[in-house]
Fold this protein.
Amino acid sequence: MPKVTMRVNGREVSGEVEGRTLLVQFLREGLGLTGTHVGCDTSQCGACTVHVNGLQVKSCTTFALDVDGAEVTTIEGMANADGSLSVIQQAFQDHHGLQCGFCTPGMVMAAAALLKENPKPTEAQIRHHLEGNICRCTGYHNIVKAVLAASGQDVSAIAAE
Amino acid sequence: MYAFDFVKPKTLAEAVKALGAEDAQALGGGQTLIPTLKQRLAQPAVLVSLSGIAELKGVKAAGGSLTIGGGTSHATVAKEAKAYPALAALAANIGDPAVRSLGTIGGSIANNDPSADYPAAVLASGATVVTNTREIAADDFFQGMFTTALEPGEIITAVRFPVPEKANYQKFEQPASRFALVGVFVAKYAAGVRVAVTGASTEGVFRWTEAEKALSANFAASAVAGLAVPGGEMIADIHGSAAYRAHLIKVLTGRAVAAAG
C-alpha cells in the first residue's frame, strides 16, 4: 500500500493507506486522533473540519494521499502548550457555545480559520463563515457569541436568547 | 467507495499521460467527485489528482482580460480576481469556506452541475476555456446538464475572461445545499450585454437572449420588466416549481442590472 507522510499538530507522522483512504480516516483510525468527528460523511456538516497548510478543509472530503507532505492541524493541536484551553476553546466554554459537543471540534477549527483571516469579524461575517458547520442542537446563538468573544469584542449587548 | 489507485503528478505532461490509462479520472478539489465516489456513482481505476500541479494555479490580469488557472481554488479567486469584482464576489459565495479552500474553477466547469455558480460567469462573460489541447469558446463548451465539450482525458488548464465594463451575479440560494436555486450573471461589454442563467433549466446553464437584446439597447432593470419569462423546460423539485424558477430568472436579472449600476 502507498505510504503517506504529513506533519499533524507539529509531529511528523506516516502510515500506509489505500488510495481511497480519507484524511479523517487516517487521523482517527491511523493516528488515534478521534477529536475530529465524522457527522454526515457527505460534506454537509463540517464536524470533520481541520486545517491543511492553514486552510480550513473537510477531512471527510479530502484524500489522505492528496495531503501528503502537508501541515495538518486538528482540534488536538488547538490547546496551548501548557495544556490550557486556547482563547477560542475557552470562549466556547465561557459562553456555553456547545450543548452535546459533537460539532464543537469543527466549529472551533472553522472559527480559528476565520479569526486568522479576519481578527474582528462582525456577527454577520461569523454566521456567513460558519455556514458549512451544522449544530444539530441548534446552539448557534452561543457559538456565534463565543466566536465574537474570542475575537476580543464586547458581547454584553447580545441577549441570551 | 470502490478501490482505485491514486496518483498525484507534478506536471501537466505527467497528468495527461496518467489520464491516458484505462478508466482514469481527473480529481480537482474533490468537493463533488469525492461525495460521488462515496455513493459509488463512479468507479475509476485510477484517480489522477491535479492539486500538485503548480502551472494550473494562479490569477493573472493583463490587457483587459483575466486568466485563471484551472486548478485555482474558489478562495484564491475570491481574493485575487480584483480586476473582475463580480467574479471575485461569485467565488466568495460558492458553498462554504471549506469547499472554497479546495474546490477549483476547472473542476466546477468540467462537472457542469446545472446549479453551479461558475458556469453562469463563464457563459455570461463569453470566456474562453483553455485545455491542454485547444481553446473552447464558452458558447460551445457547455452542452447540457453535466455535459461539456471536453474529450476524455482533456484537462482545463485555464479560463480566460474578458473583463466587462459592468457585471453582477445574483444568486437565489438554496439554503441547505448553498447551490443556486436560480443564479443570473449579467455582464455588459462594449459589444453588448450577455445574460447567463444557472440553476433553472433542465438543459443546464443557458443564455437569455431576449434579455440580452433588451439590455443592450437600454441597460436598466426596467428593460427586462416587460419581457415574458424565458421559455424552455425548467427544473421542478421540492424547492421550487418550474414556473417559480422562470419567475426568479426575471426578478434576479433585474436585480443584477440594478446592482451592476
User: Anything to note?
Assistant: Chain A has two domains: 3-76, 87-150. Chain A has a mean pLDDT of 95. The beta strands of chain A are 3-8, 11-16, 49-52, 55-58, 71-73.
